[in-house]
Amino acid sequence: MSFRNRTFSVHRPSSASDSPASPTLRRFSVAKAPSTNEQKSSAHIRFREAHVGHRPHAGLDPSRASTGVVWCTERAYEHGFMEDPGSWANLGQGAPEAGDGIPGSFERPKTINVTEDGREYGPTAGIKSLRAAVANLYNVEHRAGKESQYTWENVCIVPGGRAGLIRIAAVLGNAYLGFFIPDYTAYNEMLSLFKNFAAIPTPLSAGDGYTLHPDKIAEEIFRGTSVILTSNPRNPTGEVVTNPALAEIQDICRDRCTLIMDEFYGGYNYTSGCDGTTISAADNVHDVDEDSVLIIDGLTKRFRLPGWRVAWIVGPKEFINAIGSCGSYLDGGTNVPFQEASVAMLEPKLVRREMVALQTHFMAKRDYVIGRLEAVGFKFPRIPNSTFYIWLDLSGLPDAISDGLSFFEECLKEKVIVVVGIHFDLNPSRRRDLFDSPCHHFVRLSYGPKMEVLKKGLDAIERVVKKFRDREPTKEESEAVE
After folding, report:
1. pLDDT band, residue 203 (cuts 50/70/90)
2. Between 451-471 and 404-413, two packed helices, what is the crossing angle to 10 degrees?
3. How far is CA 405 from its chain centroid?
4. Contact 366, 388 (CB under 8 A)
5. Tens digits of per-residue pLDDT, 413-462?
6. What is the spatial distance between Cα 352 and Cα 61, in angstroms, rounded to a whole number?
7. β-pairing, 442-446 with 419-420?
8. Is 438 exposed, middle or buried (0-12, 13-18, 19+ CB in 10 A)?
Protein backbone atom coordinates (compact mmCIF):
# COMPACT_ATOMS: atom_id res chain seq x y z
CA MET A 1 0.00 0.00 0.00
CA SER A 2 1.51 3.32 -1.06
CA PHE A 3 1.09 6.69 0.67
CA ARG A 4 2.25 8.58 -2.41
CA ASN A 5 0.18 11.64 -3.38
CA ARG A 6 -2.07 11.23 -0.34
CA THR A 7 -2.98 14.41 1.50
CA PHE A 8 -3.05 12.75 4.90
CA SER A 9 -0.26 11.08 6.84
CA VAL A 10 0.23 9.15 10.04
CA HIS A 11 2.19 12.06 11.52
CA ARG A 12 0.77 14.51 14.02
CA PRO A 13 -0.38 17.83 12.51
CA SER A 14 2.04 20.69 13.10
CA SER A 15 -0.60 22.94 14.59
CA ALA A 16 -4.24 23.05 15.56
CA SER A 17 -5.09 24.88 12.34
CA ASP A 18 -3.90 21.95 10.23
CA SER A 19 -6.61 19.64 11.48
CA PRO A 20 -9.74 19.59 13.58
CA ALA A 21 -7.83 17.16 15.81
CA SER A 22 -5.89 18.48 18.78
CA PRO A 23 -2.10 18.69 18.17
CA THR A 24 -1.62 16.17 20.98
CA LEU A 25 -3.81 13.56 19.31
CA ARG A 26 -2.40 11.07 16.88
CA ARG A 27 -4.09 10.52 13.50
CA PHE A 28 -5.29 6.95 13.58
CA SER A 29 -6.56 6.65 10.02
CA VAL A 30 -4.40 6.84 6.90
CA ALA A 31 -7.46 7.92 4.91
CA LYS A 32 -8.82 10.85 6.91
CA ALA A 33 -8.42 12.82 10.10
CA PRO A 34 -10.67 12.01 13.05
CA SER A 35 -14.09 13.58 12.62
CA THR A 36 -15.65 15.86 15.19
CA ASN A 37 -17.98 13.04 16.14
CA GLU A 38 -15.08 10.62 16.65
CA GLN A 39 -13.30 13.13 18.87
CA LYS A 40 -16.38 13.72 21.06
CA SER A 41 -18.01 10.28 21.03
CA SER A 42 -17.59 8.56 24.39
CA ALA A 43 -17.66 5.16 22.68
CA HIS A 44 -14.72 6.12 20.43
CA ILE A 45 -12.80 7.65 23.31
CA ARG A 46 -13.24 4.59 25.52
CA PHE A 47 -12.27 2.25 22.69
CA ARG A 48 -9.05 4.13 22.03
CA GLU A 49 -8.20 4.33 25.72
CA ALA A 50 -8.74 0.58 26.09
CA HIS A 51 -6.72 -0.57 23.07
CA VAL A 52 -2.97 -0.11 23.00
CA GLY A 53 -2.83 0.41 19.25
CA HIS A 54 -5.08 3.46 19.50
CA ARG A 55 -3.12 5.37 22.10
CA PRO A 56 -0.90 8.37 21.26
CA HIS A 57 2.20 6.11 21.30
CA ALA A 58 0.99 3.04 19.44
CA GLY A 59 1.96 -0.22 21.05
CA LEU A 60 3.16 1.33 24.33
CA ASP A 61 1.83 -0.18 27.56
CA PRO A 62 3.27 2.01 30.36
CA SER A 63 1.86 -0.33 33.02
CA ARG A 64 4.62 -2.83 32.13
CA ALA A 65 7.36 -0.28 32.70
CA SER A 66 7.97 -0.50 36.45
CA THR A 67 7.90 -2.84 39.42
CA GLY A 68 6.27 -1.98 42.74
CA VAL A 69 9.48 -0.58 44.24
CA VAL A 70 10.00 1.70 41.24
CA TRP A 71 6.36 2.83 41.35
CA CYS A 72 6.72 3.80 45.01
CA THR A 73 9.99 5.62 44.33
CA GLU A 74 8.38 7.55 41.46
CA ARG A 75 5.62 8.71 43.81
CA ALA A 76 8.33 9.85 46.24
CA TYR A 77 9.91 11.89 43.43
CA GLU A 78 6.64 13.80 43.16
CA HIS A 79 7.09 14.79 46.82
CA GLY A 80 10.70 16.00 46.41
CA PHE A 81 12.77 12.85 46.97
CA MET A 82 14.83 13.35 43.80
CA GLU A 83 15.80 16.93 44.70
CA ASP A 84 16.85 16.22 48.29
CA PRO A 85 17.27 12.47 48.95
CA GLY A 86 19.46 13.09 52.01
CA SER A 87 16.52 14.45 53.99
CA TRP A 88 14.48 11.30 53.34
CA ALA A 89 14.51 7.80 54.81
CA ASN A 90 14.18 5.25 52.01
CA LEU A 91 12.90 2.10 53.72
CA GLY A 92 11.45 0.86 50.45
CA GLN A 93 14.51 0.08 48.37
CA GLY A 94 15.35 -3.63 48.46
CA ALA A 95 19.09 -3.16 48.94
CA PRO A 96 21.43 -3.60 51.91
CA GLU A 97 23.81 -0.90 53.07
CA ALA A 98 26.84 -1.09 50.80
CA GLY A 99 29.50 0.65 52.90
CA ASP A 100 32.55 -0.77 54.68
CA GLY A 101 31.33 0.01 58.20
CA ILE A 102 30.07 -3.45 59.23
CA PRO A 103 32.40 -4.99 61.89
CA GLY A 104 34.12 -8.12 60.61
CA SER A 105 33.16 -7.57 56.96
CA PHE A 106 35.90 -7.55 54.33
CA GLU A 107 36.61 -4.30 52.52
CA ARG A 108 35.13 -4.08 49.04
CA PRO A 109 37.33 -3.20 46.05
CA LYS A 110 37.60 0.50 45.34
CA THR A 111 39.29 0.04 41.96
CA ILE A 112 38.90 -2.61 39.27
CA ASN A 113 41.81 -3.87 37.19
CA VAL A 114 40.73 -4.14 33.55
CA THR A 115 42.72 -6.86 31.81
CA GLU A 116 43.05 -7.19 28.06
CA ASP A 117 40.49 -10.01 28.20
CA GLY A 118 38.20 -7.67 30.10
CA ARG A 119 38.04 -5.38 27.07
CA GLU A 120 36.61 -8.13 24.90
CA TYR A 121 33.14 -9.61 24.69
CA GLY A 122 32.82 -12.26 27.35
CA PRO A 123 31.05 -15.63 27.12
CA THR A 124 27.32 -15.19 27.67
CA ALA A 125 27.46 -17.95 30.30
CA GLY A 126 30.26 -16.12 32.17
CA ILE A 127 34.01 -16.52 32.43
CA LYS A 128 35.22 -19.99 33.44
CA SER A 129 37.19 -18.84 36.51
CA LEU A 130 34.13 -17.28 38.14
CA ARG A 131 31.88 -20.20 37.24
CA ALA A 132 34.41 -22.54 38.86
CA ALA A 133 34.64 -20.33 41.97
CA VAL A 134 30.84 -20.40 42.39
CA ALA A 135 30.76 -24.20 41.97
CA ASN A 136 33.52 -24.60 44.56
CA LEU A 137 31.69 -22.36 47.05
CA TYR A 138 28.52 -24.44 46.77
CA ASN A 139 30.45 -27.69 47.08
CA VAL A 140 32.19 -26.52 50.26
CA GLU A 141 29.10 -24.96 51.86
CA HIS A 142 26.43 -27.44 50.75
CA ARG A 143 27.94 -30.58 49.14
CA ALA A 144 30.61 -31.69 51.61
CA GLY A 145 30.84 -35.48 51.70
CA LYS A 146 28.39 -35.93 48.80
CA GLU A 147 29.37 -37.93 45.75
CA SER A 148 27.69 -35.59 43.26
CA GLN A 149 29.58 -32.27 43.03
CA TYR A 150 28.97 -29.10 41.03
CA THR A 151 31.51 -28.13 38.35
CA TRP A 152 31.93 -24.91 36.40
CA GLU A 153 29.58 -26.39 33.80
CA ASN A 154 26.77 -26.30 36.38
CA VAL A 155 27.03 -22.50 36.72
CA CYS A 156 25.90 -19.63 34.51
CA ILE A 157 26.89 -16.05 35.34
CA VAL A 158 24.14 -13.49 34.63
CA PRO A 159 23.93 -9.66 34.84
CA GLY A 160 21.69 -9.51 37.91
CA GLY A 161 18.82 -11.49 39.37
CA ARG A 162 16.14 -10.19 37.03
CA ALA A 163 18.24 -11.09 34.00
CA GLY A 164 18.71 -14.57 35.45
CA LEU A 165 14.98 -15.04 35.97
CA ILE A 166 14.26 -13.86 32.44
CA ARG A 167 16.82 -16.28 31.01
CA ILE A 168 15.24 -19.15 32.92
CA ALA A 169 11.76 -18.14 31.73
CA ALA A 170 13.00 -17.98 28.13
CA VAL A 171 14.06 -21.64 28.09
CA LEU A 172 10.96 -23.09 29.75
CA GLY A 173 8.64 -25.15 27.59
CA ASN A 174 4.86 -25.28 27.52
CA ALA A 175 4.01 -25.67 31.20
CA TYR A 176 1.97 -24.60 34.17
CA LEU A 177 4.24 -22.48 36.38
CA GLY A 178 3.19 -22.25 40.01
CA PHE A 179 4.19 -19.36 42.25
CA PHE A 180 3.11 -18.20 45.68
CA ILE A 181 1.88 -14.86 46.96
CA PRO A 182 3.05 -12.62 48.43
CA ASP A 183 6.43 -12.69 46.67
CA TYR A 184 9.04 -10.57 44.86
CA THR A 185 7.38 -7.81 42.78
CA ALA A 186 9.53 -8.26 39.64
CA TYR A 187 8.11 -11.77 39.19
CA ASN A 188 4.90 -10.05 38.07
CA GLU A 189 6.49 -8.45 35.00
CA MET A 190 8.65 -11.49 34.22
CA LEU A 191 5.70 -13.90 34.39
CA SER A 192 3.56 -11.73 32.11
CA LEU A 193 6.35 -11.28 29.55
CA PHE A 194 6.50 -14.84 28.26
CA LYS A 195 3.71 -16.85 26.63
CA ASN A 196 5.44 -20.24 26.67
CA PHE A 197 3.98 -21.07 30.08
CA ALA A 198 0.85 -20.32 32.08
CA ALA A 199 1.50 -18.71 35.46
CA ILE A 200 -0.76 -19.93 38.29
CA PRO A 201 -0.77 -17.97 41.57
CA THR A 202 -1.38 -19.65 44.93
CA PRO A 203 -1.91 -17.54 48.07
CA LEU A 204 -0.12 -18.56 51.25
CA SER A 205 -1.86 -18.40 54.61
CA ALA A 206 -1.40 -15.46 56.95
CA GLY A 207 -2.17 -17.81 59.82
CA ASP A 208 1.17 -19.61 59.48
CA GLY A 209 3.22 -16.58 58.51
CA TYR A 210 3.03 -17.12 54.73
CA THR A 211 5.39 -20.06 55.08
CA LEU A 212 5.74 -22.50 52.18
CA HIS A 213 4.77 -26.01 53.33
CA PRO A 214 5.41 -29.37 51.63
CA ASP A 215 1.64 -30.01 51.49
CA LYS A 216 1.19 -26.86 49.41
CA ILE A 217 3.82 -28.06 46.93
CA ALA A 218 2.13 -31.46 46.69
CA GLU A 219 -1.19 -29.75 45.90
CA GLU A 220 0.42 -27.75 43.10
CA ILE A 221 1.97 -30.83 41.49
CA PHE A 222 -1.29 -32.76 41.84
CA ARG A 223 -3.10 -30.16 39.73
CA GLY A 224 -0.54 -30.38 36.93
CA THR A 225 2.10 -27.79 37.78
CA SER A 226 5.45 -28.76 36.25
CA VAL A 227 7.50 -25.68 37.22
CA ILE A 228 7.53 -24.00 40.65
CA LEU A 229 9.13 -20.59 41.30
CA THR A 230 9.66 -19.30 44.83
CA SER A 231 11.98 -17.15 46.87
CA ASN A 232 13.59 -18.73 49.94
CA PRO A 233 14.18 -16.84 52.18
CA ARG A 234 10.96 -15.08 51.24
CA ASN A 235 10.65 -11.51 50.04
CA PRO A 236 8.64 -9.66 51.48
CA THR A 237 7.72 -11.69 54.58
CA GLY A 238 11.19 -12.42 55.97
CA GLU A 239 10.43 -16.11 56.50
CA VAL A 240 12.71 -18.96 55.48
CA VAL A 241 12.04 -22.67 54.95
CA THR A 242 14.86 -24.75 56.41
CA ASN A 243 15.50 -28.48 56.62
CA PRO A 244 13.80 -30.88 57.11
CA ALA A 245 10.82 -29.09 55.48
CA LEU A 246 12.98 -27.84 52.58
CA ALA A 247 14.32 -31.35 51.95
CA GLU A 248 10.77 -32.71 51.96
CA ILE A 249 9.71 -30.11 49.38
CA GLN A 250 12.59 -31.17 47.14
CA ASP A 251 11.74 -34.84 47.58
CA ILE A 252 8.18 -34.12 46.43
CA CYS A 253 9.42 -32.20 43.38
CA ARG A 254 12.11 -34.71 42.37
CA ASP A 255 11.27 -36.30 38.98
CA ARG A 256 7.94 -34.45 38.99
CA CYS A 257 8.66 -30.76 38.40
CA THR A 258 11.40 -28.17 38.01
CA LEU A 259 12.04 -26.15 41.16
CA ILE A 260 13.37 -22.59 40.68
CA MET A 261 14.78 -21.28 43.96
CA ASP A 262 15.47 -17.55 44.31
CA GLU A 263 18.03 -17.60 47.13
CA PHE A 264 19.31 -14.03 47.04
CA TYR A 265 18.65 -13.61 50.78
CA GLY A 266 20.12 -16.98 51.79
CA GLY A 267 22.93 -15.31 53.74
CA TYR A 268 20.49 -13.29 55.88
CA ASN A 269 19.70 -16.30 58.03
CA TYR A 270 18.94 -15.75 61.72
CA THR A 271 17.89 -19.33 62.54
CA SER A 272 21.31 -20.72 63.47
CA GLY A 273 22.79 -18.26 65.96
CA CYS A 274 24.51 -16.05 63.35
CA ASP A 275 27.11 -18.75 62.69
CA GLY A 276 27.44 -17.89 58.99
CA THR A 277 25.23 -20.73 57.71
CA THR A 278 23.65 -19.96 54.34
CA ILE A 279 20.28 -21.50 53.45
CA SER A 280 20.23 -23.29 50.08
CA ALA A 281 18.40 -26.07 48.27
CA ALA A 282 21.86 -27.24 47.16
CA ASP A 283 22.05 -29.11 50.49
CA ASN A 284 19.33 -31.53 49.39
CA VAL A 285 20.15 -32.15 45.72
CA HIS A 286 20.86 -35.84 45.13
CA ASP A 287 22.47 -35.54 41.69
CA VAL A 288 23.51 -32.11 40.42
CA ASP A 289 22.74 -33.06 36.81
CA GLU A 290 19.57 -35.06 37.41
CA ASP A 291 17.65 -33.07 40.04
CA SER A 292 15.71 -30.32 38.26
CA VAL A 293 16.63 -27.62 40.76
CA LEU A 294 17.75 -24.18 39.58
CA ILE A 295 19.28 -21.88 42.21
CA ILE A 296 19.73 -18.17 41.61
CA ASP A 297 21.90 -15.94 43.81
CA GLY A 298 24.74 -13.47 43.42
CA LEU A 299 26.78 -10.62 44.86
CA THR A 300 23.78 -8.29 45.04
CA LYS A 301 22.35 -9.00 48.50
CA ARG A 302 24.59 -11.14 50.67
CA PHE A 303 27.82 -9.56 49.38
CA ARG A 304 26.16 -6.12 49.44
CA LEU A 305 27.21 -5.18 45.90
CA PRO A 306 23.95 -4.41 44.07
CA GLY A 307 25.67 -2.02 41.66
CA TRP A 308 27.98 -4.71 40.29
CA ARG A 309 25.15 -6.68 38.65
CA VAL A 310 26.94 -10.01 39.05
CA ALA A 311 24.70 -13.00 39.77
CA TRP A 312 24.62 -16.71 38.99
CA ILE A 313 22.38 -19.66 38.29
CA VAL A 314 23.38 -23.10 39.55
CA GLY A 315 21.73 -26.22 38.13
CA PRO A 316 21.92 -29.25 35.81
CA LYS A 317 24.31 -28.89 32.86
CA GLU A 318 21.53 -29.28 30.29
CA PHE A 319 19.64 -26.35 31.80
CA ILE A 320 22.80 -24.27 32.17
CA ASN A 321 23.77 -24.78 28.51
CA ALA A 322 20.39 -23.45 27.38
CA ILE A 323 20.39 -20.57 29.88
CA GLY A 324 23.91 -19.57 28.86
CA SER A 325 23.10 -19.61 25.16
CA CYS A 326 19.92 -17.53 25.38
CA GLY A 327 21.95 -14.69 26.89
CA SER A 328 23.17 -13.99 23.36
CA TYR A 329 19.79 -12.56 22.40
CA LEU A 330 18.51 -11.40 25.80
CA ASP A 331 21.19 -9.44 27.64
CA GLY A 332 24.61 -10.08 26.06
CA GLY A 333 26.23 -11.32 29.26
CA THR A 334 27.82 -9.91 32.41
CA ASN A 335 30.50 -7.22 32.61
CA VAL A 336 33.82 -9.09 32.30
CA PRO A 337 36.07 -6.89 34.53
CA PHE A 338 33.56 -7.19 37.38
CA GLN A 339 33.43 -10.94 36.89
CA GLU A 340 37.21 -11.12 37.15
CA ALA A 341 37.16 -9.00 40.32
CA SER A 342 34.51 -11.24 41.89
CA VAL A 343 36.53 -14.46 41.88
CA ALA A 344 38.63 -13.66 44.97
CA MET A 345 35.52 -12.79 47.02
CA LEU A 346 34.18 -16.34 46.76
CA GLU A 347 36.94 -18.06 48.75
CA PRO A 348 34.85 -20.22 51.13
CA LYS A 349 36.53 -19.28 54.43
CA LEU A 350 36.29 -15.58 53.55
CA VAL A 351 32.61 -16.02 52.68
CA ARG A 352 31.90 -17.78 55.99
CA ARG A 353 33.43 -14.92 57.99
CA GLU A 354 31.52 -12.45 55.89
CA MET A 355 28.21 -14.23 56.56
CA VAL A 356 28.86 -14.21 60.33
CA ALA A 357 29.42 -10.43 60.20
CA LEU A 358 26.38 -9.92 57.97
CA GLN A 359 24.00 -11.96 60.12
CA THR A 360 25.18 -10.40 63.38
CA HIS A 361 24.81 -6.86 62.05
CA PHE A 362 21.47 -7.26 60.33
CA MET A 363 19.82 -9.25 63.12
CA ALA A 364 20.70 -6.41 65.51
CA LYS A 365 19.05 -3.96 63.12
CA ARG A 366 16.00 -6.21 62.86
CA ASP A 367 15.64 -6.28 66.63
CA TYR A 368 15.98 -2.49 66.84
CA VAL A 369 13.32 -1.86 64.18
CA ILE A 370 10.85 -4.33 65.66
CA GLY A 371 11.36 -2.85 69.11
CA ARG A 372 10.62 0.65 67.82
CA LEU A 373 7.52 -0.52 65.94
CA GLU A 374 6.20 -2.45 68.93
CA ALA A 375 6.55 0.68 71.02
CA VAL A 376 4.30 2.49 68.54
CA GLY A 377 1.69 -0.26 68.81
CA PHE A 378 2.40 -2.66 65.94
CA LYS A 379 1.95 -6.36 66.69
CA PHE A 380 4.28 -9.17 65.55
CA PRO A 381 2.78 -12.65 65.92
CA ARG A 382 5.97 -13.97 64.27
CA ILE A 383 9.42 -12.39 64.26
CA PRO A 384 10.95 -12.59 60.76
CA ASN A 385 13.85 -15.05 60.78
CA SER A 386 15.64 -14.00 57.56
CA THR A 387 16.14 -11.29 54.88
CA PHE A 388 16.12 -7.60 55.89
CA TYR A 389 12.38 -7.04 55.45
CA ILE A 390 9.41 -6.64 57.74
CA TRP A 391 5.95 -7.45 56.39
CA LEU A 392 4.12 -4.82 58.41
CA ASP A 393 0.47 -5.43 59.23
CA LEU A 394 -1.47 -2.15 59.32
CA SER A 395 -4.85 -3.59 60.27
CA GLY A 396 -4.55 -2.39 63.89
CA LEU A 397 -4.07 1.25 62.89
CA PRO A 398 -6.81 3.90 62.62
CA ASP A 399 -9.03 3.27 59.59
CA ALA A 400 -7.62 6.23 57.65
CA ILE A 401 -4.15 4.62 57.48
CA SER A 402 -5.00 0.92 57.86
CA ASP A 403 -4.42 0.08 54.17
CA GLY A 404 -1.09 0.12 52.38
CA LEU A 405 -1.82 2.89 49.88
CA SER A 406 -3.13 5.33 52.50
CA PHE A 407 -0.28 4.61 54.91
CA PHE A 408 2.24 4.99 52.07
CA GLU A 409 0.84 8.40 51.09
CA GLU A 410 1.00 9.66 54.67
CA CYS A 411 4.57 8.38 54.99
CA LEU A 412 5.57 10.38 51.92
CA LYS A 413 4.40 13.55 53.67
CA GLU A 414 6.88 12.73 56.43
CA LYS A 415 9.68 11.92 53.95
CA VAL A 416 9.82 8.16 54.46
CA ILE A 417 9.35 5.54 51.73
CA VAL A 418 7.84 2.08 52.20
CA VAL A 419 6.51 -0.34 49.57
CA VAL A 420 2.74 -0.85 49.29
CA GLY A 421 1.73 -4.41 50.07
CA ILE A 422 -0.50 -4.97 47.03
CA HIS A 423 2.59 -4.87 44.80
CA PHE A 424 3.57 -8.26 46.25
CA ASP A 425 0.21 -9.79 45.37
CA LEU A 426 1.45 -11.02 42.01
CA ASN A 427 -1.28 -10.70 39.43
CA PRO A 428 0.40 -11.17 36.02
CA SER A 429 -2.80 -11.53 34.00
CA ARG A 430 -4.65 -8.87 36.02
CA ARG A 431 -7.47 -11.30 36.70
CA ARG A 432 -8.62 -9.71 39.94
CA ASP A 433 -9.03 -6.35 41.65
CA LEU A 434 -6.00 -5.65 43.82
CA PHE A 435 -8.19 -3.82 46.34
CA ASP A 436 -9.61 -7.24 47.23
CA SER A 437 -6.07 -8.43 47.91
CA PRO A 438 -5.07 -10.05 51.22
CA CYS A 439 -1.96 -7.85 50.94
CA HIS A 440 -3.96 -4.60 50.90
CA HIS A 441 -3.41 -3.94 54.62
CA PHE A 442 0.35 -4.43 54.52
CA VAL A 443 3.51 -2.56 53.57
CA ARG A 444 7.04 -3.88 53.23
CA LEU A 445 9.61 -2.09 55.31
CA SER A 446 13.33 -2.63 54.70
CA TYR A 447 15.97 -2.47 57.40
CA GLY A 448 18.66 -2.72 54.73
CA PRO A 449 19.80 0.94 55.09
CA LYS A 450 22.26 2.26 57.66
CA MET A 451 21.12 2.73 61.25
CA GLU A 452 20.85 6.50 61.02
CA VAL A 453 18.43 6.14 58.11
CA LEU A 454 16.38 3.58 60.05
CA LYS A 455 16.13 5.93 63.02
CA LYS A 456 14.98 8.78 60.79
CA GLY A 457 12.40 6.59 59.08
CA LEU A 458 11.02 5.15 62.31
CA ASP A 459 10.72 8.63 63.80
CA ALA A 460 8.64 9.57 60.74
CA ILE A 461 6.43 6.47 61.02
CA GLU A 462 5.86 7.26 64.69
CA ARG A 463 4.70 10.76 63.73
CA VAL A 464 2.27 9.35 61.15
CA VAL A 465 0.72 6.91 63.61
CA LYS A 466 0.52 9.47 66.43
CA LYS A 467 -1.14 12.04 64.18
CA PHE A 468 -3.97 9.69 63.26
CA ARG A 469 -4.31 8.16 66.72
CA ASP A 470 -4.77 11.65 68.14
CA ARG A 471 -7.61 12.19 65.66
CA GLU A 472 -9.47 9.03 66.62
CA PRO A 473 -12.68 9.65 68.58
CA THR A 474 -12.79 8.35 72.13
CA LYS A 475 -15.13 5.51 73.03
CA GLU A 476 -17.53 8.05 74.60
CA GLU A 477 -17.46 10.21 71.45
CA SER A 478 -18.20 7.20 69.23
CA GLU A 479 -21.13 6.15 71.44
CA ALA A 480 -22.51 9.71 71.38
CA VAL A 481 -22.47 9.69 67.56
CA GLU A 482 -24.35 6.40 67.51
Report:
1. confident
2. 110
3. 19
4. yes
5. 999 999 998 888 866 545 556 556 778 899 999 999 999 999 999 999 99
6. 45
7. antiparallel
8. middle
